[in-house]
Design brief:
The complex is a heterodimer.
Chain A: H1 8-17, H2 22-40, E1 43-46, H3 48-63, E2 74-78, H4 105-112, E3 116-121, H5 155-162, E4 168-173, H6 179-185, E5 188-191, E6 211-216, H7 219-229, E7 259-263, H8 273-288, E8 292-296, H9 304-319, H10 338-349, H11 352-365, H12 371-394, E9 397-401, H13 416-420, H14 427-432, E10 436-444, E11 447-455, H15 460-474
Parallel strand pairs in A: 2-3, 2-4, 7-8, 7-9
Antiparallel strand pairs in A: 1-3, 4-6, 5-6, 5-10, 9-11, 10-11
Chain B: E1 3-14, H1 53-65, E2 69-70, E3 73-74, E4 77-80, E5 90-93, E6 100-109, E7 112-125, E8 129-133, E9 138-142, E10 149-155, H2 162-178, E11 191-201, E12 211-216, H3 219-238, E13 247-251, E14 256-259, H4 262-265, E15 272-273, E16 280-281, H5 284-293, H6 298-309, H7 313-320, H8 323-336, H9 339-357, H10 368-379, H11 385-398, H12 402-409, H13 417-430, H14 432-439, H15 445-456, H16 463-479
Parallel strand pairs in B: 12-13
Antiparallel strand pairs in B: 1-10, 1-11, 2-6, 3-16, 4-5, 4-15, 6-7, 7-10, 8-9, 11-12, 13-14
Classes of the chains: A alpha/beta, B alpha+beta.
Chain lengths: 482, 480
């Protein structure tokens, strides 16, 4: 077995025993990435030199007796998370040459835990999109079928984990950007509770919805990464107090007595029947292992997508206004005056989808339209939260498909509205700020299907328990080695 | 028909916190451009603001001192607009739920006490500064000021004359200084004033079209701009011209207000709640804690000066309207004792010198110790009162000690009887006409003779002694 085939848990054990060194592991992985990524295109930047340096440091620390939890473990980072001294582009021409002078809190914490950052992964520009087709730089393909998209916006991170390039990768999820590509690529992807992980250093798309999370190939690896990156951060005013410890063994507790609700709105007309069947089959298995399953309703779900695109675009229009060509980022070469400098720099620097959202967001916040759109969307947000609050009085978790379909083909969703529908089952969870995970539960038409588990605020552990059990049932899903 | 002005004021004051409102950078004024900055206040991608608790505390303190209600629940909002001095392209401010609401300031006018209502006082961040290089045709930005906490205090349009507006500003400034919420230095931009004014026939309840005046960099300019604008609008109304709702600025050279470009004035700020900062919740306990920390306010100090020091109400009012000045005065009284003597110095020489030199009470070149030493020299006859005033001027100009000035300029008073007698004899000899007038009963003639002595001694003679000795000498002559 090659080194890249092992899970994080196993690699940690091998490093501890001294069977391998981090330099050996990192080198082998980067060699593999460089080869494999010619097809996959998951990485925007591979930091061979930096990674090997960090690996060497990790090996030395281990010799000195360090037992940092992720010491010497290679991970990848989505390119909208700031890495000091390494380009952070958000897959946008606007930030093509932007090198942050600081590390995001999650990056700092990964480094403190001993992890080795091997590179930055591709994404939809500024995390806006559901297929990674909106990257200004690169095409990333689905490891299961190179003709299909990896999903998005964290398509690079999802593909890198699913293609066995790295054991884990960080992503960000504003409306499904971790869970939907996890579903498409057959990886596990966790979007934690809003506030669980510091957003400091995550380039903002929609601040009230953005949350950093992680991809892994199994629940234990997710738990290990969560241990390293979660917990309160003084640099993020919205960060929740305290810190939870996720014991990788604790999640093996089984699902007996777990009350599972199946929101019927999430199994509606637009959802592919094979996808539905795959979810039902997995749920049935859980039921057989002692879980209590019941169909239930989240009546306001149907308004979630509309509310999401209003709120997220409004916040985006403000968050992305700082890219004005004055201090950093793309500046037009020719301009008449200040206004023209703004207009030209932004017209040239942003891609089509980003511009669309900025226009949409600017519109809904404009004087005379605010009440009809933004204010109303906030009201809907409250109703959706109430829906979930009520549901969690009765159920421990809710389960649904992560996405209405399996991975679609490149160029297939040319109508933006059709593309937006790819997030219809994930956005309500961001609106409510809840934790949710996508776990592969089977195949439909040869492509992975993701099962979404939604939990109560800060109950990521319950999600990991469910994930573990589902993976026990379905076994490892791995794209055929090509 | 008689017209009156309807004036409202918007005052921005920088809070005196040590660090900026959303990061740990210093708020100190000056410094090399772009050295008081970090990724957060520069709004670099991925950074987040963290609200400085002491900024909230200062704002609440200001609100309490301005008799405002403090909101138990308020929030920050984003005010969106593009400008190079605003690195995030939005200012974090407060929109519909300000921290402080519905306060007032009391003004003493010739018609008695008048309350000027305060609509709101809210917390926000300052922007950077643009520096234009006309020669190079380019502009530079200094972000040192970016993120310094500000409180914006918006009054009701309760003022009816430019004079009332000036009084309101003086009073507001003194309250902010007394509470040490802001240092209110207009030259450094830590206090900034915008105003709006409309006119209407006296007695009318309706409002006219209001005009906003911006870039007013001193209270004097506020006054002059309002005075000008009042006349301009009244003339326009009288001539049946329409008053445009617009923003104008003060042109100091021409002494007139001129319209700003409409581009600069027309904005849709697209306010919405700041998602990066959780709402601010203020408990009753916290408010009371802050209330206890409020130091003596101007009106309280004024009462004390009247009651405890026996100062005339007018003196007490003038001195306490300026925090630093009142501190200076109190220290003088502490050192010297007699408050009225010290208040004469402050009300007379000191305020005059400050006005002439445009020096602020915070930057006084002399210390209370120096002034008291000067008064002591007057008391023990080393210098005359009129000499003392000259010494004061020199002291104010140079900051030198009074003893040094007296010595260097040879200003010390001649109180030596022999020396004086010598001059007196000389004067008597040279002015026999006046002497015989005096002896003949014209007692007024002595004044002229004393004056001649003072002239001879270049004012250095101790006038009381000269009087005394001259009378003795003349009386002697009369007897003879």
């Amino acid at each position: 077995m090659e080194l890249y085939e092992y899970g994080m848990n196993e690699l940690i054990a091998m490093l501890k025993k001294g069977e391998i060194s981090s330099v050996m592991l990192t080198k082998s992985l980067i060699d593999h990435i460089e080869e494999k990524d010619k097809d996959i295109g998951a990485f925007l930047y591979i930091d061979r030199e930096g990674a090997l340096k960090a690996a060497d440091k990790a090996d030395k620390e281990r010799k000195e007796g360090s037992d940092k939890p992720l010491l010497g473990i290679p991970v990848a980072i989505k390119d909208n998370i700031c890495t000091k001294g390494t380009k952070t582009t958000c897959a946008s021409r606007m930030l093509e040459n932007f090198i942050p002078p600081y590390d995001a809190t999650v990056v700092e914490r990964l480094k403190e835990a001993g992890a080795v950052i091997v590179g930055k992964t591709n994404m939809d520009e500024f995390a806006m999109g559901s297929s990674t087709e909106n990257s200004a730089f690169k095409k990333t393909v689905n490891p299961w079928d190179y003709g299909k998209v990896p999903g998005g916006s964290s398509g690079g991170s999802a593909a890198s984990v699913a293609a066995y390039e790295v054991p884990a990768a960080l992503g960000s999820d504003t409306g499904g950007s971790i869970r939907q590509p996890a579903s498409f690529c057959g990886a596990v992807g966790l979007k934690p509770t809003y506030g669980r992980i510091s957003r400091y250093g995550l380039v903002a798309f929609a601040s009230s919805l953005d949350q950093i999370g992680t991809f892994g190939r199994n629940a234990q690896d997710i738990a290990l990464i969560m241990n390293a990156i979660s917990g309160h951060d003084d640099h993020d005013f919205t960060s929740a107090p305290g810190k939870e410890v996720y014991d990788p063994d604790d999640i093996k507790g089984g699902v007996r007595g777990l009350k599972i609700g199946l929101p019927k709105e999430y199994f509606g007309e637009g959802v592919n029947s094979e996808v539905k069947d795959s979810i039902y089959a997995a749920v049935k298995q859980l039921e057989e292992r002692g879980a209590e399953v019941e169909e239930m309703s989240l009546p306001y779900s149907e308004y979630a997508l509309a509310a999401y695109y209003i709120i997220s675009s409004a916040e985006a229009s403000s968050n992305l206004a700082r890219y004005d060509g004055i201090r950093y980022g793309h500046r037009a070469e020719k301009y008449e005056d200040l206004i023209d400098l703004y207009a030209c720099s932004r017209s040239e620097g942003f891609g089509k989808e980003v511009k669309r959202r900025i226009m949409l967001g600017t519109f809904v916040l404009s004087s005379g339209y605010y009440d009809a759109y933004y204010k109303k969307a906030l009201e809907v947000r409250t109703l959706i939260k109430n829906d979930f609050d009520k549901a969690f009085e009765k159920y421990d978790v809710l389960m649904s498909p992560t996405a209405p379909t399996t991975a679609f083909g490149f160029g297939e969703k040319s109508d933006p509205l059709e593309m937006y529908l790819a997030d219809i089952l994930t956005v309500p969870i961001n609106i409510a700020g809840l934790p949710s995970i996508s776990v592969p539960c089977g195949l439909a038409g040869g492509l992975p299907v993701g099962l979404q588990i939604i939990g109560r605020p800060f109950e990521e552990k319950t999600l990991l328990k469910g994930t573990y059990m589902i993976q026990e049932i379905t076994g490892k899903l791995r794209p055929e080695v090509r | 028909m008689e017209f009156e002005a309807v004036i409202g004021l918007e005052v921005h004051a920088e809070l005196r916190t040590k660090t900026k409102v959303f990061c740990g950078c210093t708020t100190e004024f000056g410094g090399q451009p772009n050295t008081h900055c970090c990724p957060v206040c520069l709004g670099l991608p991925g950074t987040l603001p963290v609200l400085n608790k002491s900024a909230v505390e200062y704002a609440i303190m200001a609100g309490l001192a301005l008799n405002c209600n403090i909101s138990k629940f308020s929030k920050m909002d984003r005010k969106n607009y593009f400008y190079p001095d605003l690195p995030k392209a939005y200012q974090i401010s407060q929109y519909d739920l300000p921290l402080c609401k519905e306060g007032y300031i009391e003004l003493e006018t010739d018609k008695g006490t008048k309350k000027i209502g305060i609509i709101r006082a809210h917390l926000e961040e300052d922007a950077g500064k643009l520096i234009h290089d006309e020669n190079a045709g380019t502009s530079f930005v200094d972000y040192n000021r970016t993120g310094v906490p500000l409180i914006e205090i918006v009054s009701y349009p309760d003022m009816r004359t430019p004079e009332e507006a000036r009084t309101y500003l003086t009073k507001l400034k003194s309250i902010l200084e007394y509470t040490e919420v802001s240092d209110c230095k207009m030259q450094e931009g830590s206090l900034r004033v915008d105003t709006n004014i409309s006119v209407r026939p006296k007695g009318s309840e309706e409002f006219g079209t209001k005009v906003e005046l911006k870039n007013l960099n001193s209270f004097r300019v506020v006054y002059k701009a309002l005075e000008y604008e009042f006349k301009r609008q009244v003339d326009a109304v009288k001539n049946n011209e329409k008053i445009m709702q617009e923003t104008r600025r003060w042109d100091e050279d021409k002494g007139i207000t001129v319209p700003m470009r409409s581009k600069e004035a027309a904005h849709d700020y697209r306010y919405f709640p700041e998602p990066d900062i959780v709402p601010i919740e203020v408990s009753d306990e916290w408010i009371e804690e802050i209330r206890k920390k409020i130091p003596e306010l101007p009106y309280q100090k004024k009462d004390r000066f009247i009651k405890e020091m026996g100062l005339p109400s007018y003196d007490a009012g003038v001195i306490t309207s300026d925090k630093a000045l009142s501190d200076f005065f109190e220290r003088c009284v502490e050192l010297y004792g007699n408050p009225k003597t010290m208040s004469n110095w402050v009300m007379g020489e000191l305020l005059r010198a400050m006005k002439e030199t445009d020096i602020d009470s915070e930057d006084l070149p002399i210390s209370p110790e120096q002034l008291v030493r000067l008064q002591n020299m007057v008391d023990n006859g080393k210098v005359s009162i009129s000499m003392g005033k000259k010494v004061f001027d020199s002291m104010f100009k140079t900051g030198d000690d009074p003893e040094v000035i007296v010595k260097e300029k040879g200003l010390s008073q001649i109180s030596d009887a022999d020396a004086l007698n010598e001059v007196i004899c000389k004067v008597i000899e040279n002015n026999s006409k006046s002497v015989s007038d005096y002896i003949g009963g014209k007692k007024k003639a002595m004044g002229f003779l004393v004056g001649q002595v003072m002239k001879e001694t270049k004012g250095k003679a101790n006038p009381q002694m000269v009087n005394e000795l001259m009378r003795q000498e003349l009386d002697k002559m009369q007897k003879n």
